[in-house]
Design a protein that fits this description.
- By secondary structure, the protein is mostly beta strands.
- It has strands at 3-7, 11-12, 18-25, 35-41, 48-54, 59-61, 69-74, 79-84, 93-100, 109-110, 114-118.
- Strands 2, 4, 5, 6, 9, 10 and 11 form a 7-stranded mixed sheet that branches. Strands 1-3-8-7 form a 4-stranded antiparallel sheet, with no helix packed on it.
- It is globular and about 40 Å long.
- The termini are far apart.
Length: 120
């Protein structure tokens, strides 16, 4: 069974860069035709898809976050990472990594999520 685990700092200062890593076990991030996504949920709000990196390395971003977001991967460690620059308190959220099987029916495996608070 595929498992995903987010890791990274729980507190980031405004204007700094938020960096998170998702470690995947039970399956390879290079397996066709999966997409590995980052999704967040601010307190009291709905889920927001941020972006994804595909099995072959292509990356995709939400238009509203594209200018501040970068997703990369380390295939040797079976990990993919999120960087969100110039954060503000509005970026405070639970951040999830998830696998998208590309069927159009949403994510099939999720990490437990990690709370990142942006505060000075």
């Amino acid at each position: 069974q595929v498992q995903l685990q987010e890791s990274g700092p729980g507190l980031v200062k405004p204007s700094q860069t938020l960096s998170l890593t998702c470690t995947v076990s039970g399956g390879s991030i290079t397996t066709s035709y999966y997409y590995w996504s980052w999704i967040r949920q601010p307190p009291g709000k709905g889920l927001e898809w941020m972006g994804a990196i595909a099995y072959e390395g292509s990356d995709y971003y939400s238009p509203s976050l594209k200018s501040r977001t970068s997703i990369s991967r380390d295939t040797s460690k079976n990990q993919f990472s999120l960087q969100l620059s110039s954060v503000t308190p509005e970026d405070t959220a639970v951040y999830y990594c998830a696998r998208d099987p590309g069927t159009g029916y949403g994510m099939d495996y999720w990490g437990k999520g990690t709370l990142v608070t942006v505060s000075s």
